[in-house]
Amino acid sequence: MAKVILTRWLARQFTAGQIEHQVPGLTIRALARELEYRYPGIIKHLEDGVAVAIDGEIYQNAFLEKVEPNSEVAFMPPIEGG
Amino acid sequence: MAEKTYKWVGTRQPRPDGADKVTGRARFGADFDMPGQLVGKVLRSPHAHANIRSIDTSKAEALPGVKAVMTSADMPDMPDEMAPAGEVMVNLRDVTRNVMAREKALYDGHAVAAVAATTEAIARQALALIEVDYEVLPHVIDVDQAVAEGAPILHENLRTKNVDGAEDTLTNVAARIQFTKGDMDSGWSQADVVIEHAFTTKPVHQGYIEPHAAVASTTEDGQVQLWCSTQGQFNVRGYCAKLLGMETSQIRVTPSEIGGGFGGKTVVYGEPLAIKLSQKAGKPVKIVMTREEVFRGSGPTAAGAMDVKLGATKDGRIVAADLNIRMQAGAFPGAPVGPACMCSFACYDIDNINVVGFDVVSNRPKVAAYRAPGSPVAAWGVESAINMLAEKLGMDQLELRIKNAAREGTKTHYGPTFKDIGMAATLDAAKNSPHYQTPLKPGQGRGVAVGFWFNIGMDSSAACHVGEDGTVTLISGSPDIGGSRASLALMAAEELGVDYQKIRPIVADTASIGFNFLTGGSRVTFATGMAVVQAVREAIDELRARAAKLWEVDVEAVIWEDGCAKPAGSNVGDFEPLSLAEIAVNAGKTGGPINGHAQLNAQGAGPGFGAQIYDVSVDQDTGHVTVDRCTVVQDVGTAIHPDYVEGQLQGGVVQGIGWALNEEYIYNDKGQLENTGFLDYRMPVASDLPMIEPIIVEVPNPNHPYGVRGVGEVPIVPPMAAIGNAIAGATGIRMTDLPMSPPKLSAAIDAARVSEAADD
Asked: Which domain holds residue B427?
């Protein structure tokens, strides 16, 4: 099970405030689908307009990236820069 | 990662674009001209906030020499929703209104109409003939005044995102964002010492020397060519296609050399207007902003007002940290409040953190990115408060930071847990630097501050074309704003094993290379560098295959080493090494041109940390601050080209010194900007600066073939607080509002004298 960390806003909107979740999933896409199954409507907020940190490394437009069973997956606002 | 030795990476070679730039031959945005081109000029609102009742362009259109006039009515309106444009998610309703006002002018300098004429004089005359009927409205400039009850409302449709029950409330607050970690009550209960203070910053302009410039040429079949100064030609293409209802393949954008961007050239202003005017006139149209227009009409970085609270144990362990930050977005939502909140305490390992941020609109130009957008604003408050905590604890300012530094395994307040990071190594390098080991002279103060930026990856494409003489053209789509052509060529030379001078890197237009996300976020040497390495490796595989054909052996029997194809072992056969040139000259006989291509979404950018040390002297009579010495320390992963890494570090520091000591927008009571030139908007010049001593720390990023992290963002994060801390050391006065300009510091010194006299 990967440990998924949602933003406070997503948690408030979809998961009754629960920020951390244990989710099976081999990829970000699979993980997002599982979260959608649990919390209908959340997937569009996980697939577009967000960055994902997998084990501390930031991925943008993450979709097919692998997630290991003990990975930490944190969803966060997208990052651009100057 | 074991330390590697390289032949080219890490060396200081001449930059490929250097000769053109120092001889004046390089062509910047305003240098490009087309036969028969018209001059485009933009009419701008003199009001900070006004309804536009009507615009009458008939007199301008009738003026001889005027070939086209446009208003927002010439562009389709856009839905109020986030949509991709060049891989950036933007609210196109806001973007089209920022490019040209519709119902309202929202800031002094807001574009309201544009003309194209045969001469600049006629174009200016035509602007004067356009009649705009304004209904002037109350305006608001300051961010905290914009959130106050009764403030003038900029957008009737704006509601605060992420706040329950905000659906029916008119507001200037576009969004609220919050990050938390741990238990704040527990944190405060552990604290022996608490610091709580408010800090403010002013918006500052990136101050690029080259103004925005664009030349558009359209054809009868709808094709558009656009030449412009930009950090991202593909993003310009995406924006213009959306705003004008075109397909991206109809627009070919060529980036000029760029005279500075720093984030300010990641958006569009005159580009879609030049295209529309060209379409209407049937001729090329060139729009070049004046310096005044750059200040009034283009985006500075956001300002912020914040409250910082820190709690620590007696031995200097920070146990609770709280930040409430309101950031000014300008006329449309989009302040970099997310990055500000995330970066705020990223340098520290603190168990209990609460950060709340607000994205606030006011009657100023819509903000644009500026190096590490958001992070310097938060650092001004946080890093000042860290020093106040050190003073209260009686600890050395650097030791307090070392004691609380983020390390591998530190869980950030915005979610991720850090892996391989260089924060501790950076602080150690600062502590051991000659600068920090040198005692202060009488009257001087020393300040330290640290900074963080994520660094980013994103999409890049690259191509490697081997010429018939064995030289190589290296093609990317990343505008070179900081020496990236040199760094990309160095990595290509390292891979190929050939002389750096044999590699010619170019920046291609949108029709000549696959998509590249813009140059920004310290991404190019990391992300486009990865694409370059992949493209070159593909070319090397082809070179091995061609050598195998010439030798009539399997490709697996050929290795690439020192710029040559060689037999993998003695059993392959007795073959002399084949050089790149020898293989290239036979390319036609062995299968045709030899090229390599790569396209990728670069993942795994490595976080960047920096620390800076300043010694300052303060003229007690005038409040003038002299920066006597400055050392900038940063973990860059690997310095591919140390000269340009150091240049990025020094450049960020210079801009930070200006932000700290002088730069601000000055508005009159009508909300009109009064300092629209470099004489009145005072940026540092060489005579204002000491030698800035760079110390490069290299903790390689394991996700990049050469360990690159990124450079350009972090150096602008610490200067403001570090200088404020140095001023506090020199004077005993804690400044809390930027800039710490002579009038303000002088007033603070005078107030302190009065206070001391009263105490006596």
From this structure: 304-455+606-755
